[in-house]
Amino acid sequence: MNAVTAHDTSGRDFLAGGGEMGEHIRALDWSGTPLGTPETWSVSLRMMVSLLLANRFPMLLWWGPQYIQIYNDAYRPVLGSKHPQYLGRPVRECWSEIFDVIGPLIDKPFHGGPSTWMEDIELEVNRHGYLEESHFTPTVRCLMRARRTVSAGCSPRCTRLPSRSSRSGASRF
């Protein structure tokens, strides 16, 4: 049996591997989220989560009209102490302090517009219990539109800079 023909009767074979985030995704009680249990997820969502988990680049998927967050191991440092409690939660809850900026970036492709991208935007994010100046280069694009269901995804290139007073160079996340 190879990976293409193997089938897990639990309906979660697409979640195999994936490092720590694969474990978190498998362990989360998804029945309490708008997505429901992984066994009921669409083929498209399963495919995107499988791709995300296999990728070593920081990747984040916002799925459905509430932009439910699913992310990979490489994206965890972006969240800081917000990981893992915001897995499976709406982006508005996780990033409430910057949703006025990122909300429109997500909404535009979600509602049929072109992909969005901003280079080196400065945001004050609360990732460790306090606001910190961070610089991000996010790109958000629509991944698919089918039966009036649209998905938005983000592959961020993120750099966190120390505060202006102590800046001696950029550091990764």
Notes on the protein architecture:
By secondary structure, the protein is an alpha+beta fold. The chain has a single domain (13-172), classed as PAS domain (Beta-Lactamase), CATH 3.30.450.20. 24% of the residues lie in helices and 25% in strands. It has 5 helices and 9 strands; from the N terminus they run H-H-E-E-H-H-H-E-E-E-E-E-E-E. Strands 2-1-7-6-3 form a 5-stranded antiparallel beta sheet, with helices on both faces. A 4-stranded antiparallel beta sheet has the order 4-5-8-9, with no helix packed on it.
CATH top level class name: Alpha Beta
Physical arrangement of strands within the biggest beta sheet = 2-1-7-6-3
pLDDT < 50 stretches: 1-9, 147-155, 157-173
Query: Roughly what is the average pLDDT, rounded to an integer?
Result: 81
The general outline is globular
How many β-strand runs? 9
Q: Look at the structure and name the CATH superfamily.
A: PAS domain
**Count of domain modules:** 1
Blueprint (SSEs and pairs):
Blueprint: H1 19-27, H2 43-54, E1 60-63, E2 68-71, H3 76-79, H4 91-94, H5 99-110, E3 116-117, E4 121-126, E5 131-137, E6 139-146, E7 149-154, E8 157-160, E9 171-172
Antiparallel strand pairs: 1-2, 1-7, 3-6, 4-5, 5-8, 6-7, 8-9
